[in-house]
Specification:
Elements: E1 6-10, H1 15-24, E2 27-29, E3 37-40, H2 46-55, E4 61-63, E5 81-83, H3 90-105, H4 108-113, E6 129-133, H5 137-146, E7 152-157, E8 168-171, H6 175-179, E9 184-187, H7 201-204, E10 212-215, H8 224-233, E11 238-241, E12 261-263, H9 271-289
Parallel strand pairs: 1-2, 1-3, 3-4, 4-5, 6-7, 6-9, 7-8, 9-10, 10-11, 11-12
Helix pairs in contact: 1-9, 3-5
């Protein structure tokens, strides 16, 4: 018989997560037949979660560890409530996107390597046109960060409807029509079958040759070889990527050392940041599981995020 207070943490127990569950009124524990809620802590092992779900049909709620749930796509049709961390890491990720955009606009990849004075150059975010692909928490936070800069932001999102702070909101079928006007294109969308390979050679060619691409979403949204070819050919001015395909990017890959490219090793949200913000989400959803609050970050199995 299920004990409604028990919430398991697996496969790795974490004291901070245990504290969050206990603060919500739940009892953290290991997985067992009397447990109805599960906090899953390993993004890289969806097969093990599949095994756990099959062995524990009594589970009704599973909290996933990251904002993106593409690794668990095959499990989302399982008859449990999945919640993710979407929106949890919006602040550090939006901050990282802003940092990459500003660094590109000031040609920091070149200036960091420079050994001579060089020419003066700068592209400012102030009064610039920005396209943000994705309409979630990162997009909202990025808009808020750049609003004092008088940016004109167009958001491209899956669903119809305005996003607070955006000057214009369009759906994915209109993406091509808004790229040419953008000085900065920020990728902050979920990885789904619709967005996989979204920025290939054809779409990159639609961008302004003086524009910059920033990817803080998922590596496979951009076709890596197409991006590198575009940078080498001057199809766009530069790119900043916190995510890659493949990831991690292997030593010796042609992307390393590209003078038009900034690569950060998926550090928009570091492990300590993730642990802190995920604990907050776990606490909120533990309250919901215990019937004391709303669910946050519930996954739509059809949309895939």
């Amino acid at each position: 018989m299920v004990n409604p207070d028990l919430i398991a943490i697996a496969p790795h127990r974490n004291p901070l997560f245990e504290k969050a569950i206990a603060a919500a009124g739940g009892v953290p524990c290991d997985i067992g037949p009397e447990v109805g809620g599960l906090v899953w802590t390993d993004y890289h092992n969806p097969q093990e979660l599949k095994t756990v779900l099959a062995a524990n049909p009594q589970l009704t709620w599973v909290q996933l560890p990251w904002a993106g749930v593409d690794a668990f796509a095959d499990l989302l049709k399982h008859p449990v409530r999945f919640t993710s961390a979407k929106g949890s890491y919006r602040e550090p990720v939006a901050e990282h996107a802003l940092m990459l955009a500003m660094a590109l606009g000031r040609e920091l990849p070149e200036r960091i390597r420079a050994t001579t004075w060089g020419e003066k150059f700068a592209v400012s975010l102030y009064d610039s046109n920005v396209v943000v692909v994705g309409g979630g928490g990162i997009a909202e936070e990025f808009i808020a960060l750049t609003r004092p800069m008088r940016t004109r932001v167009t958001v491209v999102r899956r669903q119809i409807g305005a996003l607070e702070g955006a000057d214009k909101t369009v759906t994915f079928d209109q993406l091509d029509s808004v790229l040419a006007e953008a000085q900065f294109v920020i990728l902050a969308c979920a990885l789904t079958e619709e967005t996989r390979g979204l920025f290939d050679s054809r779409r990159l060619a639609l961008m302004n040759p003086n524009a910059y691409l920033v990817n803080v979403a998922r590596g496979p949204i951009v076709v890596t070889e197409d991006l590198l070819d575009a940078l080498d050919a001057g199809v766009l001015a530069g790119a900043g990527i916190d995510v890659t395909d493949p990831e991690p990017l292997p030593q010796g890959h042609r992307a390393w050392g590209n003078p038009r490219l900034i690569i950060t090793p998926h550090t928009a949200d570091t492990p300590p940041q993730v642990e802190h913000f995920l604990a907050l989400r776990i606490g909120a959803n533990a309250l919901a599981y215990l019937g004391q609050g709303p669910w946050i970050g519930q996954v739509d199995p059809v949309a895939g995020y």
